[in-house]
């Protein structure tokens, strides 16, 4: 179990809390680290080291941000037993800003790793990530009876938004239809 979520109704390019949930595959002890690669994220804060919240309480209490790597490193405070479920919350006020282009649910750009006395876990993609700013199940269809050059045709466009749409938000469809090249 590994997943990453953000604030409800968050938009791409805005600040959000970040919640990481994982099951420790091995024992983690004081001074071990767990890293979270957040490709495309930025941070509106000067301090590189900051407080986080965790469950179990105080298992992880501090983190640091490396803007060059786009990586948060969490410092383990207290022993975390293998197969323990862990939750780490980086509060919104820590200034993390989601990528402008959004986050796909199938992203490979958010990864978890660890440096521990019992071994190293290389950066591994987290496949359960809350999508932000994307559409899923998009489709476009033409009425097959009239779909010929120079005829008026019915066009159906469908999509499933993976973000909250509010009154006043704008959706645009770029109807550029090109020719296939053989």
What does this structure look like?
The protein is mainly beta and 182 residues long. The chain has strands at residues 2-6, 18-23, 33-38, 42-43, 49-51, 53-55, 60-66, 71-76, 85-90, 96-97, 110-116, 119-125, 135-142, 155-161. β11 and β12 (119-125) form a beta hairpin. The radius of gyration is 21 Å and the shape is elongated.
Give the rounded overall mean pLDDT: 88
Straight-line N-to-C gap? 46 Å
Structural class: mainly beta
The major beta sheet can be summarized as: 6 strands, antiparallel
The number of distinct β-strands equals: 14
Order of helices and strands: EEEEEEEEEEEEEE
Helix content range: under 10%
**What is the number of helices?**
0
Characterize the overall form.
elongated
Radius of gyration over C-alpha positions, nearest whole angstrom: 21 Å
Oligomer: single chain
Question: Topology of this protein?
Answer:
Elements: E1 2-6, E2 18-23, E3 33-38, E4 42-43, E5 49-51, E6 53-55, E7 60-66, E8 71-76, E9 85-90, E10 96-97, E11 110-116, E12 119-125, E13 135-142, E14 155-161
Antiparallel strand pairs: 1-2, 2-9, 3-8, 3-11, 4-10, 5-7, 6-9, 7-8, 11-12, 13-14
């Amino acid at each position: 179990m590994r997943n990453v979520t953000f604030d409800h109704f968050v938009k791409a390019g805005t600040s959000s809390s970040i919640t990481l949930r994982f099951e420790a595959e091995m024992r983690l002890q004081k001074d071990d680290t767990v890293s979270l690669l957040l490709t495309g994220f930025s941070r509106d804060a000067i301090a590189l080291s900051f407080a986080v919240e965790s469950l179990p309480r105080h298992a992880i209490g501090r983190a640091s941000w490396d803007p060059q790597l786009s990586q948060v490193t969490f410092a383990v405070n207290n022993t975390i037993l293998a197969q323990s479920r862990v939750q780490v919350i980086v509060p919104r006020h820590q200034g993390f800003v989601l990528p402008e282009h959004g986050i796909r649910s199938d992203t490979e750009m958010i990864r978890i790793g660890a440096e521990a006395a019992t071994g190293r876990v290389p950066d591994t993609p987290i496949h359960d990530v809350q999508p932000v700013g994307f559409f899923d199940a998009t489709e476009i269809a033409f009425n097959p009876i009239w779909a010929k050059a120079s005829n008026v045709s019915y066009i159906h466009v469908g999509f499933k938004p993976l973000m909250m749409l509010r009154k006043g938000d704008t959706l645009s469809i770029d109807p550029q239809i090109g020719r296939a090249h053989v």
